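REQUEST ID: PR-0412
SUBMITTED BY: lab tech R.K.
PRIORITY: routine
TASK: structure prediction, single protein chain
INPUT:
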Amino acid sequence: MRLQVVQFSADSSERDGITFSPLSAPRALDDFDVNIVDLSSVGIWRCYEDTCGKVDCLCDLQTICQMVRSRQRAIVIYVFPQNIRYKYRMEYDRVNGSLSKALKDMLEEMYKYTITAAIPRYTNYAKNIL
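STATUS: complete
OUTPUT:
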């Protein structure tokens, strides 16, 4: 079984038969039986802008979403963060530090700006499974 782990700060490498790819440059999903998209890195959940709920790596997440929609047979598993803080306004408030919120307390904003762009809705790709 071929396995790819896509992580925020991973270097392209292979160890113990597992391929590690950065979030910004994952390999083709159908080249692997199982793909694990690890969204648990603190580095993903930050935004230099003032918009609470957006993330700086949104383009990378949108690309992965397109790849998931286009795959033919590969299994994709998402790993979500636990007990981390979302940081925003990082550029705006350099003197006092960035603002932050517990990610679990802002699910509505995350869903609106980030989750819907990063993960395909079940109904969009369920037809390929059934």
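NOTES: Strands lie at 3-7, 13-15, 18-22, 34-38, 46-47, 75-79, 85-88, 99-102.
REVIEWED BY: pending
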